[in-house]
Design the sequence.
């Protein structure tokens, strides 16, 4: 393996988010003729949207850890990745075989999302209800999906970041 060489540095005022600098960095790298085969970054730069944008706009694969499902601790039984997504028939199937009604487009924090709500009755009768829904009121499981390309990126990266290969890549991250 060759040496690590810093070819682009960009400083930002403290209140600005790191992730907002990615376009500037990728623009400068491309302008200088240093378009990387991969751009390894820390978690402050990685979201499904930033991975998708870097690939489409700059042709640069962005590698770094995607935040784990923030609701996973509340629902230790199943994460979003445990559900089967049927993009052709806009539904989700839970690990116990219950298929949701078609999802509905919605906005979450101003971003497009897909709202999937499992039937209350089906979830109430399920033996894994408390592990899955995390509630005692008997509501059905509610999952927000990202638009298809971003959701696929997120699921792929979350699965991949559990591998030893990914952990070796992360050893290259700046500390």
Sequence:
């Amino acid at each position: 393996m060759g040496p690590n060489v810093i070819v682009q540095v960009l400083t930002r005022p403290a209140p600005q988010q790191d992730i907002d600098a990615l376009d500037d960095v990728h623009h400068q790298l491309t302008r200088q003729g240093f378009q990387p085969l991969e751009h390894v970054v820390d978690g402050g730069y990685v979201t499904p949207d930033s991975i998708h944008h870097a690939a489409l706009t700059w042709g640069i694969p962005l590698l770094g850890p995607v935040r784990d499902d923030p609701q996973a601790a509340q629902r230790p039984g199943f994460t979003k990745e445990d559900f089967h997504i049927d993009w052709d028939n806009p539904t989700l199937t839970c690990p116990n075989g219950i298929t949701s009604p078609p999802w509905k487009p919605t906005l979450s924090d101003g971003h497009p999302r897909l709202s999937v709500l499992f039937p209350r009755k089906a979830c109430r009768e399920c033996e894994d209800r408390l592990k899955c829904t995390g509630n005692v009121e008997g509501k059905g499981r509610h999952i927000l999906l990202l638009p298809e390309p971003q959701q696929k990126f997120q699921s792929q990266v979350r699965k991949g970041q559990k591998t030893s290969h990914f952990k070796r890549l992360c050893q290259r991250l700046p500390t």
Observations:
- The mean pLDDT is 83.
- The beta strands are 39-40, 62-63, 84-86, 91-93, 104-108, 111-117, 142-145.
- The chain has six helices and seven strands.
- Helices lie at 22-31, 48-58, 120-125, 129-133, 148-160, 164-170.
